[in-house]
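To the team - adenosine-5'-triphosphate complex, inputs and output below.
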Amino acid sequence: MKKSFAVIGLGRFGGSVVKNLIDSGQEVLAMDSDEERVHEFMNIATHSVVANAQDENTLRSLGIRNFDTVVVAIGEDIQASILTTLMVKEMGVENVWVKAQNDYHARVLEKIGADRVVHPERDMGARIAHRLVARNLLDFLEISDKFSMAEVRVTNTKLFGKSLEELNLTGRYGVNIAAIRRSDGTVELAFSGTVISENDNLLVLGDTKAVELMDETF
Ligand code: ATP
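Output:
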């Protein structure tokens, strides 16, 4: 079933969220207090509106409570971000995602009931840094404060021809192999009997430190 989204704040982050949701076929209300920003999204979003999200009556008249998910993508004006999040949660929206400017902002957002707090600049910086120093790490995604997922190329010849059961990566390193990308690009779910070949990439899931260690092991 199609879900309805409202994105408040159409900076680079909020704007990109709107475009990608639309590309994946979702209905999106795009809102910003800046008329020029809204103008840019008139032909992109399902609906677009110039409005100050700090005004409770405006949020009510737009029927914000009827949206499945609201993304608060107001960056610099932390007060506006907090107040908007608080009102949207009080109006009963189930799923509210908010962009945080810093850790203090994030802590307040979590306290007032934001369902998911995102730090796009910090997370992208971490992801790029991991890739800069890694030899075999092809991609890296922090999925929580503790856990990450990575795609790691296997270059250690000792591993070729061994099954996941023989390698016992869960027992030895505390990581799970979710899937394997074979050299022809096909992706297979990983089972204990799955055998590793040259040029395979493993999709590894686990504690961030353990996943980073896989770069050396493979
Ligand atoms: P980005 O990095 O995503 O470009 P940013 O973190 O610098 O953005 P801002 O530019 O401060 O964030 O804010 C994003 C958008 O939110 C701006 O277009 C701004 O006009 C809008 N915005 C700020 N306050 C409000 C508000 N009270 N109501 C609606 N929109 C707002």
